[in-house]
Amino acid sequence: MEVTVVEREGKKPENKKTKQLEAFIRENKNQPLTTNEGVKIANDENTLTAGERGPTLMEDFIFQDKMAHFDRERIPERVVHARGFAAHGVFRVYESLEDITMAHFLQDPSLETPVFVRFSQVAGSRGVNETNRDVRGFATKFYTEEGNFDLVGNNIPIFFIQDGIKFPDLIHAVKPEPHNEIPQGQTAHDTFWDFISSNEESAAMMMWIMSDRTIPRSFRTMEGFGVHTFRLVNKNNEARFVKFHWKPVLGLHSLIWDEAQKLGGADADFHRRDLWENIEEGHFAEYELGIQVINEEDEFKFGFDILDATKLWPEELVPVRKIGKMTLNRNVDNVFAETEQVALHPGSIVRGIDFSNDPLLQTRIFSYSDTQIYRVGTNFQQIPINRPVCPFHNNQRDGAARYIIDKDKVAYHNNSLQNNTPYEVPPARGGFLTYPSQVEGMKVRKTAPSFTDHFSQARLFWNSMSDVERNHIFLAFSFELGKVKSKMVRQNVVNLIGHISHDLATSVAHKIGVEPPNVKESSETASSKALSMANTTFSPATLKVGIIVADQYDAAIVRPLLQQLLAAKTRPFIISETQETLNGTDGSTLQVDDSFLTGSPLVYDSLFVVSGRGATPHFNQKAKSYIIEQYNHYKPIGSSRSGMYLIQEVGIINKPGVTITNGPFKTYIQNVGKQRFWERG
């Protein structure tokens, strides 16, 4: 029911409901014409074509934004999206990049650009375990003053396929098999590996997904990539090819397979809990934005096609230049309203950033916006989490879940009743200008010859791995293919691996009961340090340390231990038999964070054993089970002399990464920063 305030003292009656809606009311008169993302439109009369009389190009995001909205102005459709988690933050560029781009948010180091980042899993449903082996989405919405820019990528720099027309096939293959809807959110099944072995272009991605990159330790220790080749365009209309990278400040770290599987049962929300808790505690997630840049005249000087999404640009050939930092510093207020309704779209670009002819990117430009209109609704850009921070005006009207109330009589272009507004904005005054790259050739459906080398970069990845990483890849293949029922598919995959490494393929073949391959192995001899996770930053900062304490503990040990752990920016947690308050020998007390029942050794990055005079047989039994699990996952373990009896009983005294000390705790904390001690064997 609407309530009207009675008119008094000559004031006009005020409708309270109208007052509430004022934030969503806009007037288009005398305003510039923009897309729904806030990008100013320079030409609303013509689609983008290959030549004046050529065909319309799929990358015309202005046309798609306008037409797709019109197509659905009377058709409300929506669908739920996959499992993901997100946070708000800010981005700041280190120095002006005006020499290579017009993008406003990349000009001024004093300018903070709001961002929203959604991390996600690709294969599973919303209820899937977060630690399954899977590619992770890393999608960033920049709310710039010139419109929204969405950098929609993954934690792996390449993809399975070269052309988006095969994307439905890939997803059909990776999803649960339709006859029994098994397995959920996993690749260890027949249809997925049948697709991989039948599509050689997936060879390099196959190696990446069998590496530890697909079982990240946390969102905060995960790289992100734009995957595709874009263009940066400067004010002189000079263009360069570019790839985008996110580099985590804490370094690149992963789980191990046994740990990841068990974590799915111990804490199915492990990754989101980690991000949420750290942001709440002030341990903000930080990433540096890097770019690789190739001049247009150098497009064809490499041994791979720079537009091929199944290929990366080796950092030794094209160095990554770090240009700014993103800090995620605020959790969402409502997961559905923000995380689930955020609509990210590779076609959301701003002046100074443009597309390349990457065929996978070209198809994503269409499919993502089309999906968002279906999933979230016709007016998805008007939802608060998707609204640009700059004004936006156009003649799009109605449709499902309309938020904006347009007061104008006119909703078309050209017009005379409203002085032809909203008006087009010339490029010289900020209107979007598509880079005039030359397009020519016959209409074809054909793979470019430069896209046909499928094994060199797969071999490059294998050459770059440490011994530990190679062993993990071997075990991953053995597990995944061991779940495949079809012996023919298993054999086909082993043959595909044989093109990359005969030794790896032969070892896997022995494990899964098929013949070694008889195929030609890639002759690629190069390697890249940037591809190995062994070459990353190691720090104890924000790592979760469990301190196992019994009643009547030695406060002279616990007090300085906690102080030094906090000084090293770790996150210490007290673990005990129950959640009752513990009493120290000096009359001090400790609040227990987790009991052995409610906690799990899997969620801690390290353990330190203090014990205490009140330790019971049950305490000792559970403490030893925690220690063994941590030891088997190669994690650092420390103990005071009062807790050393537990270390002795499990037989790990003097083992790598096991420290016995009553303090100071410098060596133990250094071990925490190393994170894994692979030499345990």
TrEMBL record:
The active site is at H81, N154. Its EC number is 1.11.1.6. The keyword Oxidoreductase applies. Residues 34-421 form the Catalase core domain. Keywords: Heme, Hydrogen peroxide, Iron, Metal-binding, Oxidoreductase, Peroxidase. SMART domains: Catalase. There is a cross-link at H345-Y368 (3'-histidyl-3-tyrosine (His-Tyr)). It catalyses: 2 H2O2 = O2 + 2 H2O. GO terms for molecular function: catalase activity; heme binding; metal ion binding. GO terms for cellular component: cytosol. Its cofactor is heme. Pfam families: Catalase, Catalase-rel, Catalase_C. GO terms for biological process: hydrogen peroxide catabolic process; response to oxidative stress. Belongs to the catalase family. HPII subfamily. Decomposes hydrogen peroxide into water and oxygen; serves to protect cells from the toxic effects of hydrogen peroxide. This is Catalase. It comes from Cytobacillus kochii.
